[in-house]
Amino acid sequence: MYFGVLGPLVVRTDAGEPVAVPDTKVRTLLLDLLAHRGRPVSADRLIGDLWGDRPPRNATGTLQARISQLRTALDRAEPGSRAMVAHGPAGYSLTAEVVDSNIFEQLVDAGRLREALDLWRGRAYADVADHEFARAVRDRLEEARLAATESLLAQTEDALPELTELVRRHPLRERLRALYMRALYRAGRQDEALRAYAELRETLAGELGADPGPELVELHAAILRHDASLHPSTLPAALNDMIGRTEALASARDLLADNRLLTLVGPGGVGKTRLALEVGRNHLGDVRLVELAPLRQDDILEAVATAMGLRDDTADLLPRLLESLRTRPVLLILDNCEHVRAANLTGRLLAEAPQLRVLATSREPLGLPGERVFEVEPLGLNEAVSLFTARAGVGDSEAVRAICRRLDGIPLALELAATRVRALGVQGLADRLDDRFRLLSGGRGVPARQRTLRATIDWSWDLLDAEERTMLRRLAVHAGTFTLEAAAEVSQLPDSLVLALVDKSLVATTTRRYRLLESVAAYSLERLVEAGEEAATRQRHAEYYLRLARQAEQHLRGPEQRTWLSRLDQEASNFRTALDAAPQISLKLVDALAWYWYLRGRHGEARRSIAAALAVPGQDPADRAAATVWLVGMAATDAKGSNLTAAAEQALARYDEPPARALWFLAHTQWAYGARDVLMRRVDRAIETFTADGDRWGLAAALSTRAQLNIVHADLWSMLQDGHRSLELFDELGDDWGRLQAAYSLIIVAEISGDYPTAVRYLEDSLRLAEDLGLWTEVSFRTSGLGRIAYLTGDYDRADALHGRARRLAIEQSNKSAEEYAEVGLGLSARRQGRLDDAEAHFTKWLDWLRQVGGTPGIAFILAQLGFIAEQRGDFPKAQALHQQGYEAAIQVGDERAIALALEGLAGAAEDPGRTRRLLAEAEALRAKVGSPLPPAERFDVDRITSRASRRPSPGSP
Predict the structure, then answer these.
(1) Do 13 and 102 share a domain, yes or no?
(2) Which residue ranges of the chain lie beneath pLDDT 70?
(3) How many CB atoms are closer than 10 A to CB 20?
(4) Domain of 774?
(5) Same domain (yes/no): 11, 140
(6) 187 vs 199: CA distance, rounded Å
């Protein structure tokens, strides 16, 4: 029988049937016995635990009746179970072998933390929370749960949201605080990490009179000095020790320290990749890996940008990549350069990013100036023997040395051969190798080492049975890594064959994913072509990944969003391969992938893929219409507003009746740049359809977009109504991206109203959601939002720090909109502090870009700020001209708040105090009309201008 105490009491039979335990006192009795873990409990103790200071008149008899009820309930569910409740001289005891708390502790001891924590359904012994008998065991279990959670989070990427909540609940726990500080630092939030330390130090001193422990003190110092060891590794974990490369590793590390480009060259299978990864693991700093083997020539730039965490939604991806690299010291590992032309891009990156180092692997040098070439030689005899004996589990012998000599010390050949020792023995292996290589020695035109490796793979192939050979050659169509499910579906064979190939070292494994080594993949593809199976296998590969994309698309709008985003991230190379291999289904595939690309900010990849799919003739018109909508939406920030409107109308014209989601998407992606009236009509039509169809996700999305469109006219009531309803729906659906969208208008309402605590609360919640999903552009926007509130409340140091961090994130993500928003924040803070030259530089930089994308609201705002700067310098004619331009832009948009801002600027530029007062009054009336009077924190310019006007006589006065 199974008992659950990690939450409300659960009792089940061995068959899984629930057991009803009647009466609260009987359940409390059962929990009391479970808490004592098989130890006897006296009758007096049980009576005290059940009834406290008010026992029944016949307490002993009543207890016996409850014992009988418990036995009857257990026996009714599973005959014979009444014997579990025993009575002896020391009292009553319960024999329960299967209790979830015991299982939890066993799993923790085994290091299976996720499984252990998944057993918890609430607080331990939740039904008896107010009973003294449960306190000690409950406290012990809760402490074990927290310790296990800490250990799991220490191994988890993107754990910041969970850590934030745990630190709030356990503010004095030092290990938790250390994990939190590391997570903040890795998210680029150094000042918050330092503040977290200061808060703990103050709390410890105030409540306990103690100081932080030495580990936390050292972590604090490491954050202050930006210690490279704090950066998380992006490299795959090593599955076993690297043997025989001690000197090569030391030499490569020394060469990399003195040279910004180091290329490891050597034949296939010699261990270039393994050595490069080991150099990377030993490197103190930020290391990024780009695996070029599965890529096409056109994918290299995008792959490097992705490795650096940049989104690709702009046409100028290379300049954005260069800008990101100029600000950060990085070691970039480019693996398998020989089949693509990587030299030009590598040279450009090195020339313009002085803090960058590149470690390349290739069968030949890249041929760039300043390149240092390190030839990775085959292992010497002794090193080869060490590797072979370690992998085969045998001792040194002459037969072992003969094998190592025959295999030329090539690590891959040695690893493959070692798997055969179990079946053949060392001498049998040596004899067979000698025979095989004598037969193969006559090859011409192929280097000896390549003949050795080819012969080794040939020999491994010949030892496979027919099904294993079929599986291995069909695996060759996968790009990068793959899952067992994918392998089985595409090959139409049992996935157990993959595991058999892992045992034979022909398939490599990482965490629940698999891949073919480069040389094995090339060999297997040849065999696939020879078998005449390539076309059919590639077709199944494409169809499998189409099904996967469609399955994922449903989960990307709900509580499993984060899981499926990560899953699709891992399949990027396979999706590219599928698009190339099966053009006839490419429109269906891009339609299934488009929402993923959009969420991840990979708009450039989306545009290229969709355009290529649209160029394939003979596809379904409905698919073409859907793809065209995605294409136009993804291009929203690259076109002017008028062009956006025309392109969107043309896309929608492909339908007899445009779907509501197409109407919404084109309004959502264009809301900041397109024609507001047109967009509002689209989104209103979408809302009507979503409501009629019962599409709650669509309705929530469209409401959030309508709330954003109402920002232009500061329609606070509509923004609140739509924003709250949208947030409510997205909360019900569990869609974190949706929560981010819905909260935006609520943040703006709070800021306009001067309700800064509410704005901060929404911003901090949104920031946690964005970090949890890995949506770093949204992180940038929300960080800037917090910077705005800091600026408005007069905390300029914090405002500058937050805007600076947001700007860096935006540059890294290659997002111009987020970068502009952050830099305008820096300009606002600089102007408020009197640093007018700095402010002018921040603002002026963005005017051309805003004109290019049709960002008229932004143009109006920046012109107003530049006008205020001119007026503060005393250049009233220039101020007048700038504010007049801003006024005209605001009139064009129809934004009453922007018009009021321009009027306030014109008031400051006016020479006549009477005109100044009239314009200020007009602006105030306009703000009052739309229900958004200036809050005190935003009256800096109005108060300044009013004060000056009151001191200056009107023209013609005495």
Answers:
(1) yes
(2) 110-111, 155-158, 188, 225-234, 237-239, 284-285, 311-315, 327, 339, 434-453, 456, 511, 636-645, 673-674, 952-958
(3) 8
(4) 755-831
(5) yes
(6) 19
Residue among 165, 192, 35, 49 at smallest CA distance from 99: 35
Q: Give CA separation, 264 vs 248, 261, 408, in Å.
A: 10, 10, 19
Two tokens at 376? 């990775």
| Strand 2-4 versus strand 10-12 pairing type | antiparallel
User: Residue 842, class by beta-carbon neighbours within 10 Å (0-12 exposed, 13-18 middle, 19+ buried)?
Assistant: buried
Q: Which of 824, 865, 828 has the alpha carbon at shortest distance from 845?
A: 824
- Looking at the fold, whether 6 and 140 belong to one and the same domain comes out as yes
Residue showing tokens 């009391």: 32
At 558, the amino acid letter reads G
> Phi and psi at residue 757, in whole multiples of 5°?
-60, -40
Position 387: which residue type?
Answer: L
What pLDDT does 800 receive? Answer: 92
Sheet holding 2-4, edge to edge: 10-12, 2-4, 98-99
How many independent structural domains does the chain possess?
A: 8
User: Do residues 6 and 131 both lie within one domain?
Assistant: yes
Which tokens belong to 67?
A: 């014992």
Task: Enumerate residues 6+ apart whose C-beta is below 8 A from 508.
Answer: 239, 502, 514, 515, 516, 517
- Residues in contact with 302: Cβ distance below 8 Å, sequence separation at least 6, in sequence order: 312, 317, 604, 605
Do 122 and 35 have their domain in common? yes
Q: Is residue 864 part of a domain?
A: yes
What residues contact residue 685 under an 8 Å CB cut-off, 6+ apart? Answer: 660, 663
Phi and psi (nearest 5°) for 228?
Answer: -65, -25
Reported as type and span, the H/E element at residue 12 is strand 10-12
Other beta carbons within 10 Å of 837: 10
